[in-house]
């Protein structure tokens, strides 16, 4: 580990930190320390980090804005590669937008709308990065990444660059089969948008934002939706039908506004949130015979 630390310090233009608390980087404000945290300044930093970790046989976990994660109180062993604002360049060419992985998805959606380009307006309220959205086929309001993705720019775990079409990403609901199988890292993406009037696009974005404000607990730290919606139903409805809204364990609470949100009341631990997740899954399974699948990603949990 010491030789890897020295190599990263000498090769990476961005930030390299050791034993860094990850609660500073998650929307939950929860998470133990990373052995090594790398915040790359360039795509080449990503290549060098992955190559160095590969050669030192050290695991790498990749994160963006930390909006869809529950990091354990014990933290994450190995390297955490955080793709943030330094990798946030966005460029337009005709109806195509190219964005680096660290660009905020709402920012890209707004920039596109201002140019009269539609197709990403559903992402205006998703508090995540382009990289995370591409990796998990993010979506909302009937739209999702695979509808507009032209090409994803990836780096393999041994540091090899490649570009993949939307078909090669093997998308399904909130999942890329390719990313799941290979662990490739998204460093950028190109989206094919369509021309439309600025006023119409902006109006839709305002409507989506108003709906989000009225139905989601935006005032408290959370990870967004905890569970994927099962076919033909909604996770939030099932939680409410199980009379679990408002249930509290430690500093974590199932939101009273939306059953598919678990919020941090101020002093929640990851263990508190995980206990509520387990309670919801077991109760919904017992009451309705439905196994809820997680949308939030559990990181640093042994056996999960």
Summarize the structure.
The protein has 304 residues and is an alpha+beta fold.
How would you characterize the overall build of this protein?
There is one protein chain. The protein has 304 residues and is of the alpha+beta class. It folds into three domains: 2-82, Uridine Diphospho-n-acetylenolpyruvylglucosamine Reductase, domain 2; 88-215, Uridine Diphospho-n-acetylenolpyruvylglucosamine Reductase, domain 3, CATH 3.30.465; 235-299, UDP-N-acetylenolpyruvoylglucosamine reductase, C-terminal domain (Uridine Diphospho-n-acetylenolpyruvylglucosamine Reductase, domain 1, Alpha-Beta Complex), CATH 3.90.78. Helices cover 30% and strands 26% of the residues. The chain has eight helices and 20 strands. The protein has helices spanning 2-11, 43-55, 105-114, 130-136, 177-182, 198-215, 235-241, 270-288; strands spanning 15-21, 33-39, 60-63, 69-71, 76-82, 90-93, 96-100, 117-118, 139-140, 143-144, 149-155, 161-164, 171-172, 175-176, 185-192, 194-195, 248-249, 252-254, 262-264, 297-299. The strands form seven sheets. It has a five-stranded antiparallel sheet with strand order 6-7-15-11-12. The protein has a four-stranded mixed sheet with strand order 1-2-5-3, covered by helices on one side. It has a three-stranded antiparallel sheet with strand order 17-18-19. Helix 1 packs antiparallel against helix 2. The longest helix has 19 residues, at 270-288. It is globular.
SSE arrangement:
Blueprint: H1 2-11, E1 15-21, E2 33-39, H2 43-55, E3 60-63, E4 69-71, E5 76-82, E6 90-93, E7 96-100, H3 105-114, E8 117-118, H4 130-136, E9 139-140, E10 143-144, E11 149-155, E12 161-164, E13 171-172, E14 175-176, H5 177-182, E15 185-192, E16 194-195, H6 198-215, H7 235-241, E17 248-249, E18 252-254, E19 262-264, H8 270-288, E20 297-299
